[in-house]
């Protein structure tokens, strides 16, 4: 038994004292090699996935195109609604992305809305109005199974419930004309209230000039720019200041600016002043941009916002009217906002003028 023990001690003695310690002398097993994916196999799987996605998307486009051709051939009216809704969703998505880009730039550069270029200011203003208009239909759609009711309401009341992205070209003209008729229905009330306020002025000369201006507009004649600027002081420190107007006067002006008149008087005055000053800020940005940079559609939209029904007017007519408006607006101070609000009535086209067709 001595030889086996000596033979067993030999390797341990050669390894030294470290071999006698179980913790320090243990030799760890070799690590298993890590399993790595081949780059060629990974690239091939990605290419296969992309090819599958492209094939599915192409098949979906072909099916959609066939479906739209079928609708256009068999159900033309439904196809018009379908294409309008599809184009409206695409336009709305693009606008939301543009609004997010504008807001991100405002936050990054610490800009206020008044420091933005004209088109960005106009996009923010219009998007805010679209969101407010879409709130009622969003509330109606909250209960379960209310989608069918929403679709029916949107079909039968598109002007009241749908935003501009989901109007057909024909509906756009009809609805803008309808809104302008409602706006013009308030012109007579504004002129009557303005004449009543003029009779209350203490000085004879300004009272006479303002009454003559009201009679001139009621007779169908548009006043000159010099006539309005000669009366600018009356609208900043007398009974014609926005905060001092009578309630019925403020309600009539609110209808001209498409604001709801069914609010308390102090809220109406505040909203009216806020919207008029917003238009004045847009005028300053538009003057910096230049009217020549606007497209014909942008010119029409700018005129319509300021009181002119431009849906049936050409580019030259819109540009001439807007130049006159900007000459007035950019000479007025914020304290003279009342004159700018009344100019949406005083400078509007006379009701007896027949509409002109758009040039082809």
What does this structure look like?
The chain is mostly helical. The chain has 15 helices and no strands. It has helices at 2-15, 39-74, 76-109, 118-140, 147-156, 158-161, 169-184, 187-199, 204-218, 225-230, 247-256, 265-289, 296-305, 315-329, 337-346. Helix 2 crosses helix 3. 18% of the residues are buried. Mean pLDDT is 81; it is low at 1-25 and 350-360.
Architecture blueprint of SSEs:
Blueprint: H1 2-15, H2 39-74, H3 76-109, H4 118-140, H5 147-156, H6 158-161, H7 169-184, H8 187-199, H9 204-218, H10 225-230, H11 247-256, H12 265-289, H13 296-305, H14 315-329, H15 337-346
Number of helices: 15
Low-confidence stretches: 1-25, 350-360
What is the residue-mean pLDDT, rounded to a whole number?
81
Largest sheet: none
Level of helix content?
Answer: 55-70%
Report the end-to-end length measured between terminal Cα atoms: 119 Å
Radius of gyration: 36 Å
Which strand-content bin applies to the residues? Answer: under 5%
- Which geometry do the CA atoms define? elongated
Order of helices and strands: HHHHHHHHHHHHHHH
Total number of β-strand segments? 0
């Amino acid at each position: 038994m001595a030889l086996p023990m000596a033979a067993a001690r030999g390797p341990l003695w050669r390894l030294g004292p470290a071999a006698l310690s179980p913790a320090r002398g243990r030799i760890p097993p070799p690590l298993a090699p890590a399993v790595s994916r081949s780059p060629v196999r990974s690239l091939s799987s990605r290419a296969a996935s992309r090819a599958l996605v492209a094939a599915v998307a192409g098949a979906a486009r072909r099916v959609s195109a066939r479906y739209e051709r079928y609708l256009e051939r068999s159900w033309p009216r439904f196809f018009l609604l379908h294409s309008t809704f599809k184009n409206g969703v695409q336009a709305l998505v693009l606008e939301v992305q543009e609004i997010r880009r504008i807001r991100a730039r405002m936050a990054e550069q610490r800009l206020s809305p008044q420091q933005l270029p004209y088109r960005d200011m106009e996009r923010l203003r219009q998007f805010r109005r679209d969101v407010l208009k879409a709130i009622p239909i969003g509330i109606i759609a909250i209960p379960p199974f209310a989608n069918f009711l929403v679709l029916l309401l949107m079909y039968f009341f598109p002007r009241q419930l749908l935003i501009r992205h989901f109007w057909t070209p024909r509906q756009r003209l009809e609805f803008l004309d309808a809104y302008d008729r409602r706006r013009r229905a308030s012109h007579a009330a504004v002129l009557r209230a303005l004449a009543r306020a003029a009779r209350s002025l203490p000085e004879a000369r300004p009272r006479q000039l303002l009454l003559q201006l009201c009679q001139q507009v009621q007779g169908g004649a548009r006043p000159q720019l010099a006539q309005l600027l000669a009366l600018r002081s009356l609208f900043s420190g007398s009974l014609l200041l926005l905060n001092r107007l009578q309630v019925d006067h403020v309600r009539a002006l609110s209808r001209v600016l498409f604001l709801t008149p069914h609010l308390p008087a102090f809220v109406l005055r505040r909203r009216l002043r806020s919207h008029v000053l917003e238009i004045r800020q847009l005028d300053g940005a538009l003057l910096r941009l230049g009217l020549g940079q606007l497209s014909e559609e942008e010119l029409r939209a700018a005129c319509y916002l300021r009181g002119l029904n431009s849906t049936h007017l050409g580019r030259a007519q819109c540009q001439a009217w807007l130049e006159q408006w900007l000459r007035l607006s950019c000479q007025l101070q914020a304290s003279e906002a009342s004159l700018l609000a009344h100019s949406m009535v005083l400078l509007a086209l006379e009701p007896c003028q027949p509409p002109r067709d758009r040039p082809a």
